[in-house]
UniProtKB/TrEMBL annotation:
CDD domains: DnaJ. One of its GO terms (cellular component) is PAM complex, Tim23 associated import motor. This is J domain-containing protein. The keyword Magnesium does not apply. It comes from Dendrobium nobile. PANTHER family: OS03G0776900 PROTEIN, PTHR12763. Residues 54-113 form the J domain. The keyword Transport does not apply.
Amino acid sequence: MASTPLVAGIAVAAAALGSRSLIRAWQAFKARPVIPQARKFYPGGFQHEMTRREAALILGVREHAAIEKIKEAHRKVMVANHPDAGGSHYLASKINQAKDLLTGKTKASPSAF
């Protein structure tokens, strides 16, 4: 008879400790930094003459996107790859060529490189 309160006390203590551990784990889970999902990038190299499809892949927009979206995507990609910030001159020329092709400022022509 004396063991029943002892077993009940141990069960309550175990439940309290388990609940405390779960609450702490949940708070740690909620406080973790959000890591953005990695996007899959186009695996191939550049074509000799840029097409609208390739230009859209470079900027990450649709082939027939609005000019505002093309310009915003160009700005974001260029900030990440600008030669003054350690980027490549070749990539910067391809990014500019993609923007010009999609906005209709020039026809598809090979890069200067």
